[in-house]
Amino acid sequence: MIKNNRQIFFGLVAMLAAAAVIAAGTDLGQTTKQETNWTAIAIFIGFVAVTLLITKWAAARTKTAADFYTAGSGITGFQNGLAIAGDYMSAASFLGISGLVFANGFDGLIFSIGWLVGWPVITFLLAERLRNLGKFTVADVAGYRFDAVPIRSFVALGSLVVVAFYMIAQMVGAGQLIKVLFGLDYAVAVVVVGALMMMYVLFGGMTATTWVQIIKAVLLLVGASFMALAVLWQFNFSPEALFAKAVEVHDSHDKIMAPGGLIKDPISAISVGMALMFGTAGLPHILMRFFTVPNAREARMSVAWATTWIGYFYILTFIIGFGAIVMLIQDPVAYYVDPADLTKGLKGGGNMAAIHLSNAVGGNVFLGFISAVAFATILAVVSGLTLAGAAAVSHDLYAAVFKKGKADSMHELRVSKITTVCLGVLSVVLGITFEHQNVAFMVMLAFAVACSANFPVLFMSILWKDCTTKGAVAGGLVGLISSLALTVLSPTVWEEVLMNAKGSAPFPYSSPAIFSMTSAFIVIWLVSLIDRGAQAAKERAAFPAQFVRSETGIGASEY
């Protein structure tokens, strides 16, 4: 078995090397592919070498299902906080938020605030209960007192939908970023990400994935800090002077300091805020991290540290966005930016603003560093998503639903690894298929589904005594279906993706969360109240407080 694993490991390494050779020696004539950035490639190869060594070390420690899913619950609160930050600070956060600030000014802050304020929800309502009630996955928490088959089937379905949309966005982002900055062809870049992700998860499980996320979080925080300090240094560390100059040079002038430029109506603003805030508390790859710590105290510490790093990071992205406005718009030629590309970037959301700014403040070496870190960011997030998807299939569906809890640990682990390969191949295929699609709606769709389907079920199951299986499944399905349907009918998809006439979208708002999440809660409440069967009575009797004391030994005061 060890010999076979070693052969597979080195086979994947060889495949990566072959992909790099093909990329360096082949030009398919794509006009958007840029000259190869050897500095970025060298830094990226260094990152990959270190993380592969970590994977080799982690493989020796990954023997059981508990090791694979949760690193044997041996991660400290500080380490887990950094890993959560690494999982959460995706390329969408780094490139997307700074790009939104670059293009729209103040309104870009809505997204960073929305993502950040989701953490108090997790801190005060979920983190400790997740650790006390869960074992490997979110379904363990939602289903501890419910009928296993329906609730685990639904939670696994909701998790897989979120993972799929989030992963497509990350894979497409990886392909586009590397095509532009590394000189690789798009398909090759996607294959490289898929192969590396499979190696981390297959051989190292949660241990390797955790350390990849920690390293990436440290690199990203260091790089973003340098960029923000370099920008502020230009203005004697006066944010007021930076904002004043941004107002002067931006096409919209004073409007960039006022809300309303990005989201026009209050319903959309509230709905987007709800999706970002409560969607955070429904992302399976984030919630799964609370099972990697040994106790509830470390779970709380994880959230405290994660909130610290993430809050600091989002402050930096705001400064980086305004710095890009001043330095790039004021004199694009001095920083090797094509003015035509700059105009296009302003209209398209400015996703490459942070990359261009890295060249402006640190030259080609720092540009290479930030490019490699952005790629590593995507790699770490995709690894976490894959592990969450594999756990949903192997632990929730195979072991709990199909085998009725009687699955052998080694068989379950084998199913996890098979699922990892399948998800890796599927993510590569979908990433290549969606190359030319606008994937911004996929990220929002992942958050909309998470807040509409996963969060209400999780929230009600652990905080409301009268919640039942029928109520949780019915409400969750309503939230899942309505969030998907309303997103497709929204202007973002109906008009921009499906190319229908402007103004023809049946659903006029940019996010469905205010309607779909509310509907889910109402249906869970109503169906649970109506459900008065014998099974419902048993479920009400097994409410968390009694369960936690009897099964974990944790007293009411600690709970």
Automatic annotation (TrEMBL):
UniProtKB keywords: Cell inner membrane, Cell membrane, Ion transport, Membrane, Signal, Sodium, Sodium transport, Symport, Transmembrane, Transmembrane helix, Transport
Entry's localization field: Cell inner membrane
GO MF: acetate transmembrane transporter activity; symporter activity
Gene3D superfamilies listed in its UniProt record: Sodium/glucose cotransporter
The organism's taxonomic lineage, starting at the top: Bacteria, Pseudomonadati, Pseudomonadota, Betaproteobacteria, Nitrosomonadales
Gene Ontology cellular-component annotations: plasma membrane
InterPro entries named in the record: Na/Glc_symporter_sf, Na/solute_symporter, Na/solute_symporter_CS, Sodium:Solute_Symporter
UniProt similarity note: Belongs to the sodium:solute symporter (SSF) (TC 2.A.21) family.
Any matching Pfam family: SSF
Gene Ontology BP terms: plasma membrane acetate transport; sodium ion transport
Transmembrane segment boundaries: 39-59, 80-103, 109-127, 148-168, 180-202, 214-235, 267-291, 303-329, 366-394, 415-434, 440-464, 471-489, 509-530
The protein's name in its UniProt record: Cation/acetate symporter ActP
Membrane topology: Multi-pass membrane protein
Signal peptide: 1-23
